[in-house]
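User: What would this chain look like folded?
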Amino acid sequence: FSGSLRPPLDRLAALLRGRDLIPHCPLRVSVDLPSGLDADSGLIPGHAAEADLTITFTAPKAANVLPPASRCNGRLITAHIGSPQELIDAQPSGLFLSEKKDARKWLQATAFSKDSYKNRRGHAVIIAGSANYSGAAVLAANAAMRSGVGMVTLITPQSTVGAAASRLLPEVMLRGVAETTDGMIAEAAFDEAVEMSAGADAVAVGCGIGRSEETQRFVKRAVATMKCPMIIDADALTLLSPFAVELGREIEGAARILTPHEGEFLRLIGAADKDAIKDRESAVRSFAVKHGVILVLKGERVLIGLPDGRVIVNPTGNSGLGKAGNGDTLTGILAGFTAQAAAMRIGSSETVTAAVYVAGKAGDIAESKYGKHVMTASDVRECLAEAFAEIIK
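Assistant: Here's the prediction, encoded as structure tokens.
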């Protein structure tokens, strides 16, 4: 159903959000979805009950998976009651929940064969870092190297090379390019970067690159002209804001994958008021369709907007991922997955869905090992092996 609860049920729902009414009740269970939620959105129109366990039927509803409504669900179980699959598939819906089987299918499709070698597994190029933010470049490049890709090259300002080299995995290739007086990538580095990226299967740009005018010109030229899939993150998103339609067009099938958090997304759409993205699903869908891009909106539940209008909800991950460096790590994982997919001719939509699921799963494993207070982005990267193993089994 939809709509807020009417009196007196609204007052009862408000009481049920705490345990004052029934302090000794060991478990609060909701059937289908907690009373008071709008089944078709993630919004809470008024008061709603708060459950410890929600048992929904056939398939999750929007209110089961989209925050803030999803916070009222507690643990979610989907019970199958014999609904014919063909009827489910025939229902018009633009919202989907990614599942373990989706990530498993991608990992199986990109599994190592007996004759695998680096050139067949893709080459990811990371354009990142500046004098003040070498760590962002290192985190992205090292995460890409752990993703299963064949080769990784980090392109960074010349003065950042030393700081990066001391922390990079030795397998990562490192190239320095022209920089501004402030140690950011200069526009003059563009031709160098293009030459260094020749043959790359995917390029990621933005982690820690800074926001100088020269760097902005570099980023705009790269996004508009590079003929391979690109992951655009962090400072690059700000340098491209507000986002122009022509920057999102595909160049010979080369997807543009944008990974903003909510503040960066507001800048991309040219808005200052958070109400502009209060309905996150609609905002993500509208942007992805308008610009022809894949949009990965980070937050409590990552939403993936696809150019065909579908929105994918990612169920993995936790608030411990809201620390510095985790966005850079996700960018590296996306770059590595995208390079593998391009080399093996696998679609960008399923690749991004799988990468986000795997990154979130690694974050969940890191939380179980170290706790949210202690876990770091480097811990998440080091948990990738366990995430792969858990998904594949």
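The two ends are 38 Å apart (CA to CA). If you want, I can go into more detail on any region.
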